[in-house]
Please model this.
Amino acid sequence: MVVTTFSRAEAAGVTLGERHAVGITRDGRWLLVDTTCPHRGGPLHLGQFDADASTVTCPWHGRLAHCSSLQPLGEPWIRSGDQISMLVKRGIAVRPIVFSTLTGS
Ligand code: FES
Model:
């Protein structure tokens, strides 16, 4: 396992191998959530987000998902101020996802 760190100011989330996670605020807490569409695994992080409605439209089949339905990322991570540190398996490529942070309720 290795620790990877990124700044919330520089990235909205991370790509972990073929999985993706973005940061949302839910019930006043900032969370990293998996962006795999519950329908057939589409990439919700590439979808159309509506911050006012806290929804995202999946780019594959156009279904609407509420940000509250996105599942927290299973990998251990901690936030210290603006820095997010994650523990990931060695050999898993980790890259930042750069776009604005989402809001979900
Ligand atoms: S995979 Fe997302 S709507 Fe079908």
Summary: Residues 37, 39-42, 58, 60-61, 63 surround FE2/S2 (inorganic) cluster (CB under 6 Å). The chain is about 0% helix and 45% strand. The domain at 2-98 is CATH 2.102.10 (Rieske Iron-sulfur Protein).
